[in-house]
Amino acid sequence: MTMDAGKAAAGGMDESARLGGRTGRLSRRSFLAGSAAGFGALGLAGCATTDGLILAEAAKIYGPMPDEKFPIPATDIRKVDPKYYRRTVRYETKEAPGTIIVDPGNFYVYRIEEDGAATRYGANVGRAGFLWSGDAYVGRKSEWATWTPPKEMIQRQPEVAKYARGMPGGLDNPLGARTLHLYQNGAYTLYTIYASSEPDSIGSGITSGCVGLLSQDMIHLYSRTPVKTKVVVLPG
């Protein structure tokens, strides 16, 4: 299966172009704008409601991660609609446990678990004109990856020229703490699932086709996702 118009729009740009930003102050937001375990394992049984996890439980899930190479601060959960908090849900599918399913129309990413369950994460997705769908797989994984802006982005935003040889990993790096690089038939698609530190981006279409999870959610998913994991991206 091949990518649709979103991939075609990308042309020959690399993954950094998928996350390229609008003109203005250099920030993760500008880069982004332009371009379950079982029930017991989550420790949330009995705490979920139809509106999402209660704030006390969400604060635990999205708390600081001081032991990371670059310590991650707590997510401001007041900026996230509770329906996008991580939780375990019922999810009927023929896909095998471990499969990742991206539902861009509803801004969710699912990891399929045993017995008809899934871990569900809130996500940001591609903006209009950059959505794509199809089957892919995780071809490689990166922790605190180096980010390199493409020539097209440097032309639009001269302030990023200083990163022409690569922006080291860190809290301000647009690829974030963890990245899953998506492949098809042995070729890199230019799309990723990555860690976002922008809580108010969850539940919106802002990227050029990539899918972002809150840093704590992405680290949770990344730790349970081996290379070669199947990824299904549903139509938007």
From TrEMBL:
Coiled coil: none annotated. It holds the Pfam family YkuD. Residues 1-21 are annotated as: Disordered. The keyword Glycosyltransferase applies. Pathway: Cell wall biogenesis; peptidoglycan biosynthesis. GO terms for cellular component: extracellular region. The keyword Glycosyltransferase applies. Belongs to the YkuD family. This is L,D-TPase catalytic domain-containing protein. It comes from Methylobacterium bullatum.
